[in-house]
Amino acid sequence: MAFCQSNYPQPYGGGYGYNPFGGYSGYPPQNFGGGYSYSAYNVNQYQQQPPPQQFPPGFMPAPQMNMIRAPPPMGLISQEEMDEEPEDDDEEEDEEDEEEVEESRNTRKTIKKNIKKKVKATEKINEKVQEDPSILEQYRDMYAAELQKRFELYGTLEPTEGTIKPLDTYSNEDPVFLYTLETEEFELEKWDPEYDCIYLKNAMDGAGTNEEAIINVITTRSNDQRQKLKKQYKTSYGLDLIEELESELSGDFKEAVMAMFVKPAEFDAWCIQEAIYGLGTDESVLIEILTSRTNAQIHELREAYPDVVSPNRKTSENQIEQDIEDDTSGCFKQFLISAVQLSQRDILNSIERETSGDFETGLHALVQNIRCRPMYFAQRLKWCMEGLGTEDRDLIRLIVSRSEIDLVQIKSCFLQLTNKTLWQWILEDTSGDYRHLLCAIVGKN
User: Fold this and answer.
1) 242-273 core/surface letters (b: 16 or more CB in 10 A; e: else)
2) Quick one: 272 and 405 in the same domain?
């Protein structure tokens, strides 16, 4: 494909701007949309129900009462019964002065109390099941529905967790709460984008910029909430939040902040465009995105791609396939095109149908590896930072795109892979506000 300059107009927040990688690229597209009610990327929409218990890959046990972690069916156990405190039959222990010993004792008591609480809840469930056996079938249906929901969202039945979650209610330590408290009577209440926008506006007013304030907000609000911040900022001040941030920030820090404000499907589409339209083709980015996203996410990505590539004119619905076909060749082209097809076929079946021989064997191994997503992404993160220099754009993409999906599991795999935490690697490999932002997303523990 011919060399082509990405040029996102102002409504998309792109422009030409700073590009630490030299030259041709603007920033990911930014829309003023006020969030979205459903998205295959919006993993936090199911957060109110804990994930089912983790099992070995490929193992699908029959539903049993002791492994279901979803709430009981409506009416099975009242909230009062669930919250009822068990009797504490532990004997009083002698008082000790050491703070650590006291903390350890309290932790043990809390664990024992929680165990008793769960045992008591299980006993109540069993009693009600004895009274009405149909409840067990209801519970199994709920469990199956939860598994189906998780599989559609994550592409796996194994538990996943992001490091960034939606903010429901301001805490008394939240910087926005503390700032608002200085100017008005403010009680702890549910998250409100207007308070965040006032805080961000103050952070960018006057001489200098309070980068710490920007980091505090964007790393403790979900992507869906950040979309609402863009809309609220425009409503409150008549200004584009993205343009304001772009004028105040610089370097890799600015690029990472811009990425945090892009809807996930559009961000993936933009990353694919950058991999194709730049000088040469970045095959590793194409493989990473197209083989690690769920079918539903690929569907959204594919719908977003035409507007990202050409926001000012209508393009073909098959634009992503056309671009891949123009920029790649042979079996690799067939593999990538299969990965973006809208039919909900399993990618391994596509490999068997479209390829053969050693190439088929190699792709099978690749996909099986990527299906253990956390370890795959841990390996990609290690590659970004090992040796001389840092692949900053890849590092930003990996951390931002997984921050609300499975970054907790990726961190665990990274520690297993390198014997050092991801937070420590970032701390040693980056600098300034850019380092502070990435470390805040990842979390120290």
Assistant:
1) bebbbebbbebbbbbbbbbbbbbbbbbbbbbb
2) yes
Q: Which residue has the tokens 């095109």?
A: 337
What does the pLDDT read at residue 56? 39
Q: How many domains does the chain have?
A: 2
Residue range of the domain that includes 373: 261-442
Strand partners for 311? none
Q: Where are the beta strands (DSSP E) in 136-219?
A: none
By the 8 A CB rule, do 324 and 339 touch?
A: no
Q: What are φ and ψ of residue 94, in 5° steps?
A: -65, 140
Residue with tokens 């194994």: 158
pLDDT at 59 over 50: no
Domain shared by 295 and 428, yes or no: yes
Q: What is the pLDDT of residues 14-48, one digit of tens each?
A: 433 333 333 334 556 665 333 445 677 776 655 44
Burial bucket for residue 179 (CB in 10 Å: 0-12, 13-18, 19+): middle
Residue at 407 is within a domain: yes
In a domain, 380, yes or no: yes
In this structure, the answer to whether residues 148 and 285 fall within a common structural domain is no
Question: By three-state DSSP, how is residue 227 classified?
Answer: helix
Which pair of structure tokens corresponds to residue 123? Answer: 């006993």
**Would you say residue 8 lies in a domain?**
no
d(CA 275, CA 283): 7
pTM above 0.85, yes or no: no
* pLDDT of 369: 61
The answer to whether the Cα torsion of 43, 46, 50, 56 is positive or negative is: negative
165 closest CA partner among 113, 223, 106, 107: 223
Which 3 state secondary structure label does DSSP give 8? strand
pLDDT digits (tens, 9 = 90+) for 171-190: 989 999 999 888 777 677 89
Whether 6 and 273 have beta carbons less than 8 Å apart is answered as yes
Cα 298 from Cα 290, distance rounded (Å): 7
